[in-house]
Amino acid sequence: MSQQAMNGVPSRGKVLTLDNMNPNVKLVEYAVRGPIVQRAVQIEKELKEGVKKPFTEVIKANIGDAHAMGQKPITFLRQVLALCSYPELLEDNKFPEDAKKRARRILEACGGHSIGAYSASQGIECVRQDVACYIERRDGGIPSSPDNIYLSTGASDAIVTMLKLLVCGEGRDRTGVMISIPQYPLYSAALADLGAVQISYYLDEDKCWSLDVTELRRAVNAARQHCNPRVLCIINPGNPTGQVQSRQCIEDVIRFAKEEHLFLMADEVYQDNVYAEGSKFHSFKKVLFEMGPEYSSTVEMASFHSTSKCYMGECGFRGGYMEVINMDPEVKVQLTKLVSVRLCPPVPGQALLDLVVNPPQPDEPSYTTFMKERTAVLTALAEKARLTEEIFNTVPGITCNPVQGAMYTFPRITLPQKAIDKAKEEGQVPDMFYCMKLLEEEGICLVPGSGFGQREGTFHFRMTILPPAEKLKFVLQKIRDFHLRFTQQFS
What we know:
The protein is of the alpha/beta class and 491 residues long. The chain has two domains: 23-63 and 370-489, Alpha-Beta Complex (Aspartate Aminotransferase, domain 1); 102-357, Type I PLP-dependent aspartate aminotransferase-like (Major domain) (Aspartate Aminotransferase, domain 2, 3-Layer(aba) Sandwich), CATH 3.40.640. It has helices spanning 3-6, 23-27, 35-48, 75-85, 97-108, 125-138, 154-166, 186-194, 213-223, 247-259, 284-290, 293-296, 329-340, 347-357, 367-392, 417-425, 430-442, 469-489; strands spanning 59-60, 149-153, 175-181, 197-202, 228-235, 263-267, 301-306, 319-325, 398-399, 408-409, 412-413, 444-445, 447-448, 459-464. The strands form three sheets. The chain has a seven-stranded mixed sheet with strand order 2-8-7-6-5-3-4, with helices on both faces. Strands 9, 10, 11, 13 and 14 form a five-stranded antiparallel sheet that branches. Helix 8 links the parallel strand 3 and strand 4. Helix 3 (35-48) packs parallel to helix 17. It comes from Seriola lalandi dorsalis. Homodimer.
């Protein structure tokens, strides 16, 4: 008998239980940090405690975390951040003059000249101006206004905020949001959390994961039976699939969004990560404005960028921005109110973003080193993209599309029927069973394709191309050996 019950007070359970918590939260799944990663962390602890394994380290190729995989920070970015964090270093002659100039400008825009102060909710004014200038340069002079820029805690935060604004209605009137399959699980997780309806459209694996408007039309027409489709999300360059959309494809998508009266969300965080010959990044905004006023004055859109990817890889600083286009002015007031509840995005992240959009110029002392480091990172990624595709395609039972951009490969794996049956027996999805076995036997952590979505009956995994070249070759070789062994074992 419990103490309370003994004192004549009936014992009561917890106030918050699995049965009475928010049901939407229970539906949220985020594979990139799911059960497989939790097991990887556990294995790392076991290795530290001296447990014998057939490997000496766990290689986490599950997440696009460049620095964790050994990529070195860009000198200029860190110099300015050091100066902003500890302004006494401004007196130190080890730091180049352009780094000091950037740091002074940022500090002057901060309350009490400190990056420890809150900023305006929409982000520091001068940073938003620099973002607008960057977008204008990128898009060949198409105007951008700092009033339409919202700085955010990584792109993820802005994406969730935007979805929050867009979701409404009940039953058949509930907002439907179109997302690609395979997709980055932030989208499905956010939609589950908000109780919105996910509308899946499939990318064409046989055509290098390209997007076809016929498939968008199929998806939207089917969805109209049970929800109100209002939003179309695009990831370009693609995650997890690494495709880069052609200009023609983007035009087709914009026309489709206008015809179907959809709000466009363009996730463009990998815009500098384009490797394939003949592939080029086109921003949705640039294409929209080049299509003329019939589109550029009517199609509502938000586009997103981040400091976490490209050549920077500064995930931990949580810097990002969103630009809104053709948004109803009254809704914009509501958006500004919504972001003000969180006070502001992290100020060090805002400072970092400022350097990304306003890097050293040719006449400045840091330019040569900056360009050398930037080029080295992107060249290495391009080489690793090529290497990954090449090696995977030599393995019977693995087929891999070219990694045109971003930082992942999403190869298709053929699994023997016996393995599929064994997985079902153990209550696991077949590609989860495969990835879990790979982790236990080789110490390599990947994310199963089922965490991103895939066509029924197909199996994949997502792997980042971030490990250093030598380690990447080692990982690819290990996966190759494992796949052959796995196929043998279950044939």
